[in-house]
Design brief:
Elements: H1 2-15, E1 30-31, H2 40-44, E2 49-50, E3 61-62, E4 66-67, E5 72-81, E6 97-102, E7 108-114, E8 122-130, E9 137-143, E10 153-164, H3 176-186, H4 193-199, H5 209-219
Antiparallel strand pairs: 1-3, 2-10, 3-9, 4-9, 5-8, 5-10, 6-7, 6-9
Helix pairs in contact: 3-5
Length: 220
């Protein structure tokens, strides 16, 4: 049990290192368009665009490498801007944004895609991805694989937070206390919507004994 708790503490320390992207903090991020530097002006003027160029170059944005831990859930809120949303040829599916979790070799091990709903010029996309077991370092790559110059989007900000999967009560550990919190939800106790959401550990849209079993698996 002690090695497990030590690893969890390490993961919590690592969670603070998950990089943010904004005009205030973009150090270490890599943008594949060498003509556009990452600075406050280019970010605030929406020049960090992700799409496929006419020559086939994929414009992507990749975070610095950060420490992580299996079961760590990385949540991303992306400010995604498109100036073409009123154009006749605009296709909302082409501005779908993909976030990929990269291993130490830069290989994508998982990804999540978000499509703007009720699209407007400025859109806020919520995305999350879970670090697999055994992974200790990673990076995040953002791309809009289907977009072209007529359907492109620009990244203004990527706000990233992370928690440990199964840490229902947010005390920094996955323990019997989290099982008790899930039981409270199952029995109809008065809990916040946020806690109820965390209690759905296996993400099957309901809180049941299966979520307790998921926490037990994480503990052992």
């Amino acid at each position: 049990m002690l090695p497990l708790l030590a690893a969890m503490v390490m993961a919590l320390a690592a969670s603070a290192q998950v990089p943010q992207f904004s005009s205030e903090d973009f150090a270490g991020w890599i943008y594949t368009n060498p003509a556009i530097p990452l600075n406050q002006s280019s970010i605030l003027n929406n020049r960090i665009v992700l799409y496929t160029t006419s020559t086939g170059l994929q414009l992507t944005l990749t975070s610095p490498v950060f420490s992580c831990f299996g079961g760590q859930v990385i949540s991303m809120r992306v400010t995604w801007i498109t100036d073409q949303w009123r154009d006749s040829g605009f296709d909302v599916n082409k501005v779908a944004l993909t976030a990929a979790l990269l291993d130490a070799n830069g290989v994508a091990v998982d990804s999540v895609t978000a499509i703007p709903v009720n699209v407007s010029r400025t859109n806020y996309l919520n995305m999350s991805i879970t670090v697999p077991r055994g992974m200790t370092s990673a990076a995040l790559r953002f791309a809009s694989w289907k977009a072209n110059v007529n359907n492109c989007g620009a990244v203004r900000e990527i706000a990233i937070t992370s928690v440990l999967k199964g840490d229902v009560n947010l005390d920094g550990e996955v323990t019997i206390a989290d099982i008790n919190a899930i039981i409270q939800v199952i029995l109809g106790g008065q809990v916040s919507d946020d806690l109820r959401g965390r209690a759905d550990v296996n993400e099957d849209k309901e809180v049941t004994v299966a979520d307790i079993n998921s926490v037990i698996d994480l503990i052992v």
